[in-house]
């Protein structure tokens, strides 16, 4: 081979210099990627760059949108992360924390992506999404009374796995939607803290473990896995869903709602009856959806004694396995789908939505119900789900975990507006209808503070733009009541530099 002449060398150097000077500056995404690749030791079996997606990667939008569960944020206008790390092991989480800190990027942690206001994948400043969907293993204890569940496992995967493993004799009580990220009855946790250390319950300390249960983990750390307690379930449970449009069996809807308020939080601990109020043909519809941990004969005995006005009859009661009841709560008619549908991670139908929440401590009077029915008829896109409290919920002291809404609450309200078509006008109308119903409910719900449920994320109750204590307190006392100050003190111990911050995170005290 001929060796290059001095002229060709000079020309090459000249061209290289021009090329480099014309090349655009590296993007923040590529600087972040270089940072995480550069960290040692990286895992040679699963190199982090194979799990990192910047906007230049053709899969970036697919990965981002795969776990967006509110179409309001499925668009070109919301700010996108500079990178997504779909962590496949703990070193990926540690590298993400280190480099996000180094480059002053905010971190958003996402498991199932069901945050109603999208706070696990949105930000107004440069940010990285740490996506946990690859970390989804479930390992059962020998006696099948516990399981270690990685944070990216969905509730459907947990329910299905628990029922299969235990021959339908164990269950795990949590949310209805099987696509949600894991959560619930925790007896231990593995986390990665702001310094990148992997800690368990003993090494993190009881105060942080206390905060994680109901205080919103994203303010403190990345949760790698939860150890959950499994509970025995009977071979058969009984479910029902009956409706009153105007009246049912001669009793009008309002009287049924009055009676439901009297009994729902006090009835047998094995029976849960959710009341949903909506409208149908200019009439208020009340749906009573229930589940009883036992057979239909015993359920009917209880209902005849405690709630005869509903007139529940044998043909309306359906006995099934606990695992099948998961589909019933999703309104899938019994026998029409295999239980394995709860393993689907991508929902069949995506929706635009807005949610808000409230707590009710005193029964709402008949006059109050008249006013509420009127406002629902004027705002037909809004439904209200009234979920009874009482039972085990009120036996646990409000300071035992960071979740504070215990004794004294009769029920929790979820306000829901769903819509299916894009466009600002329809979105604006549905959002203002929700706001109007929420406003009209003011006289009947908790006050000072007007309490809210963290899982029903609602940015209207306050957000922190400058990460100050004063801003954080506005939404903090609504979500956490008297536990807020203790959460602030845990936060200042475990994350004094406020690395784990987002629009509704726990603030550090002003002096920090
Ligand atoms: C269709 C739908 C149905 C729902 N049904 C119910 C229901 O039946 N009952 C109920 O109680 N709620 C329900 N919710 C609300 C839901 O429980 C909450 O939004 C819950 O936080 C979702 O968890 P996720 O992991 O899917 O969400 P994500 O959006 O991934 O996360 C929610 C919050 O948790 C943080 N987070 C996620 N993973 C981690 C982690 N590993 N470490 C630290 N922080 C983390 C996020 O940063 C964010 O702040 C529903 C929501 C939707 C959209």
TrEMBL record:
Transmembrane segments: none
Source species, domain of life: Eukaryota
Annotated signal peptide: 1-23
GO molecular function: FAD binding; oxidoreductase activity
Keywords annotated in UniProt: Cell wall, Disulfide bond, FAD, Flavoprotein, Glycoprotein, Nucleotide-binding, Oxidoreductase, Secreted, Signal
Localisation: Secreted, Cell wall
Record's keyword annotation contains Oxidoreductase: yes
InterPro entries, alphabetized: BBE, FAD-bd_PCMH, FAD-bd_PCMH-like_sf, FAD-bd_PCMH_sub1, FAD-bd_PCMH_sub2, Oxid_FAD_bind_N
Gene3D superfamilies per the UniProt record, alphabetical: 3.30.465.10, 3.40.462.20, Uridine Diphospho-n-acetylenolpyruvylglucosamine Reductase, domain 2
Similarity field: Belongs to the oxygen-dependent FAD-linked oxidoreductase family.
Protein name: FAD-binding PCMH-type domain-containing protein
Protein source organism: Brassica campestris
């Amino acid at each position: 081979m001929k060796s290059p002449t001095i002229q060709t060398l000079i020309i090459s150097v000249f061209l290289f210099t021009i090329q480099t000077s014309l090349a655009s500056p590296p993007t923040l995404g590529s600087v972040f990627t270089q940072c995480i690749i550069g960290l040692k030791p990286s895992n040679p079996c699963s190199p982090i760059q194979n799990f990192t997606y910047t906007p230049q990667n053709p899969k970036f939008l697919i990965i981002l949108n795969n776990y967006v569960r509110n179409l309001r944020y499925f668009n070109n206008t919301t700010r996108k992360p500079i990178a997504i790390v779909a962590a496949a092991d703990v070193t990926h989480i540690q590298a993400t924390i280190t480099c996000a800190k180094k480059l002053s990027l905010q971190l958003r942690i996402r498991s199932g992506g069901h945050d109603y206001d999208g706070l696990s994948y949105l930000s107004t400043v440069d940010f990285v999404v740490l996506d946990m969907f690859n970390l989804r293993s479930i390992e059962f204890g020998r006696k099948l009374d516990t399981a270690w569940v990685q944070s990216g496992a969905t509730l459907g995967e947990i329910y299905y796995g628990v029922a299969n493993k235990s021959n339908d004799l164990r269950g795990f009580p949590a949310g209805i939607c099987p696509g949600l990220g894991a959560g619930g009855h925790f007896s231990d946790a593995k986390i990665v803290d702001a310094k990148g250390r992997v800690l368990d319950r003993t090494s993190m300390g009881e105060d942080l473990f206390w905060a994680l249960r109901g205080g919103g983990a994203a303010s403190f750390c990345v949760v790698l896995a939860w150890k959950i307690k499994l509970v025995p379930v009977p071979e058969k449970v009984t479910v029902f869903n009956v409706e009153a449009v105007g009246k049912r069996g001669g009793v009008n809807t309002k009287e049924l709602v009055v009676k439901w308020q009297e009994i729902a939080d006090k009835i047998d601990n094995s029976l849960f009856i959710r009341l949903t109020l909506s409208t149908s043909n200019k009439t208020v519809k009340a749906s009573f959806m229930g589940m009883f941990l036992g057979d239909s004969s015993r359920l009917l005995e209880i209902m005849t004694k405690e709630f005869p006005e509903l007139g529940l009859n044998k043909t309306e009661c359906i006995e099934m396995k606990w695992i099948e009841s998961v589909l019933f709560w999703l309104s899938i008619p019994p026998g029409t789908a295999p239980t394995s549908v709860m393993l689907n991670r991508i929902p069949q139908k995506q929706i635009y939505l807005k949610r808000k929440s409230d707590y009710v401590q005193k029964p709402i009077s008949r006059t109050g119900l008249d006013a509420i029915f009127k406002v629902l008829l004027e705002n037909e896109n809004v439904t209200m789900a009234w979920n009874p409290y009482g039972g085990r919920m009120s036996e646990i002291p409000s300071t035992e975990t960071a979740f504070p809404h215990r004794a004294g609450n009769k029920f929790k309200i979820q306000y829901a507006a769903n819509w299916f078509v894009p466009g600002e006008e329809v979105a604006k109308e549905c959002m203002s209808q929700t706001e109007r119903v929420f406003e009209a409910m003011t006289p009947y719900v908790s006050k000072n503070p007007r309490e809210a449920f963290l899982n029903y994320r609602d940015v209207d109750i306050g957000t922190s733009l400058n990460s100050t204590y004063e801003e954080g307190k506005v939404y903090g006392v609504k979500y956490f009541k008297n536990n807020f100050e203790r959460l602030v003190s845990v936060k200042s111990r475990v994350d004094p530099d406020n690395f784990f911050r987002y629009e509704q995170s726990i603030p550090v005290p002003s002096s920090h």
